[in-house]
């Protein structure tokens, strides 16, 4: 059994392009960064802790495969989380406006019981055009930025702010398809075989 340790509809949609059947069991962990923790350390720790929270359940066997991921928008050394208000979203999007930031999406694939654990971190560079305060307010009113890291969704209306991307589009959305495929193959799962029509 394959388990996605995330409630994200975007991750669910991306994983469904690779495997036919999987369960969704969101992991509930503390996502507070440690003091002085570097963004690349934080994002990998988040994916690993999510995977471990599910993999440690006694009902799982070593044949079960858990996939966990975490996405952070990083500007300089600052991790931009999800906005909790219009003012918070304004602060984030003003900072991103006209700048290039990093999107770090980590991945952890492991089996039940944690006999095997593999992690990676995919870093993409995203360049924003200049965004006006009026656009930020209008964008906020669409509801899209509310639960998104960095207050935008590249696969939605937020894509209109993106001038250039260097890296993995699927990773910026929330699940790096290439890396998922590579790690699943290490666990004996081939998406191409999964998707062949009988």
UniProtKB/TrEMBL annotation:
Keywords: Cytoplasm, Hydrolase, Nucleotide metabolism. One of its GO terms (molecular function) is UTP diphosphatase activity. It holds the Pfam family Maf. The record marks 10, 71, 155 as: Important for substrate specificity. Its cofactor is a divalent metal cation. One of its GO terms (biological process) is nucleotide metabolic process. It catalyses: dTTP + H2O = dTMP + diphosphate + H(+); UTP + H2O = UMP + diphosphate + H(+). It is found in: Cytoplasm. Its EC number is 3.6.1.9. It comes from the Bacteria. CDD domains: Maf. The active site is at 70 (proton acceptor). GO terms for cellular component: cytoplasm. InterPro entries: ITPase-like_fam, Maf-like. HAMAP family: Maf. Belongs to the Maf family. YhdE subfamily. Nucleoside triphosphate pyrophosphatase that hydrolyzes dTTP and UTP. May have a dual role in cell division arrest and in preventing the incorporation of modified nucleotides into cellular nucleic acids. This is dTTP/UTP pyrophosphatase. It comes from Marinomonas fungiae.
